[in-house]
Amino acid sequence: MLRALLPLGLLFFTGALYGVNIVPKEYHGSVQFIQQIELNANFDGVDFSEISGLTYNSRDKKLYMVSDEGKLFEFYANFTKDSLELRPITAHYLKRKSGKRLKKRKRDSEDIALDKKGDLYIAFEGKPKISLFRKDGRKIKNIPLPKQLKNATLRSKNKSLESLTFHPKYGFITALEYPPKENPREVQTIYSTSGRVWHIKLDPIKKNAITAIEVMDDGNLLLLERAFLGYFEGYVITLRKIYINSCKIDPCKSKKILQMRSSNGWRLENFEGLARVGKGRYLLISDDNQNPFQRTLLLYIQIDKE
Q: Of 31, 76, 94, 235, which has the fewest beta carbons less than 10 angstroms from its beta carbon?
């Protein structure tokens, strides 16, 4: 079911906030699009662009976003049944322990997650790395990666970690953007810091990649997948549920929740971020690639209970 766009009525920073509709008229799926917004702004003098990940702390209503340029953005965010409210708090460049900004070649921050204490962790592309940061953007330490991930052979140096989430049972969960070389191209591996590993089979779509992972209400996983097929065919964006709680076979059972194709009338962008913000409720955000012809889109959705 598709809900109509609602009046925004949101507080925001210097710039612009627009209601959009990316959904084709003929859509009748089970995912409800509660609100769809285009963000276009500067944040306290820090350019708000290339958003690659986000995470939400429901206890203090803080929404954190990270860009793949090594920037951290903090918002107050309140989610109601029919709308959302955003207010900016602060923005920081990610910094080394010394307080100096991360070196350019080490700024490729791709996703962000909070642990059960509310501490903030960021996953980096390039050499796989997950690091603990303070809320002011200063690095505290790297955390140990599981052996299987450390030993994985990347398809290229820019095909590393894009996703990160925290699971109360398995610890941090992540995946490489593309399968390691030792896997067939359609078989992906999901890694946890507790040592558990799951294999999943993705659709055989050219350049299909995992860009975000989130823990669902029932403890299973929701994957955000993205494939860019070129300027004429556009994007394929997929939300897929992975049943890790009952996974006794290889690959694990999965279910396609939603698949959106530019070629089928969806007005898509490069969706890279996913966060659970309430029971059955999620945010998706796109990376504008610092391209004036692309947009930063924020989608507030409801996934019906199975």
A: 76
Spell out, as residue ranges, where the chain has pLDDT lower than 50. 1-15
- Residue reference for tokens 């708090």: 89
d(CA 52, CA 66): 6
Q: What is the number of residues in the chain?
A: 306
Instruction: Return the pLDDT at 9.
Output: 37
Contact assessment for residue 92 and residue 142, using Cβ atoms and an 8 Å cutoff = no
Amino acid at site 292: P
pLDDT score of 2: 30
Structure tokens at 91: 């923005």
CATH of domain 15-303: 2.120.10
Q: How many CA atoms lie within 13 A of 174 on its CB side?
A: 32
Are 133 and 72 in contact, with CB atoms under 8 Å apart?
yes
Domain segments of the chain: what residues? 15-303
CA distance 82 to 86: 14
Give me the pLDDT at residue 41, please: 61
Alpha-carbon distance 258 to 241, whole Å? Answer: 10
Amino acid 269: pLDDT: 96
57 residue type, one letter: N
Instruction: Please report the pLDDT score of residue 209 as a whole number.
Output: 93
Tens-digit pLDDT profile for residues 261-285: 999 999 999 999 999 999 999 999 9
| Radius of gyration of the chain from its Cα atoms, rounded to whole angstroms | 18
pLDDT for 217: 96
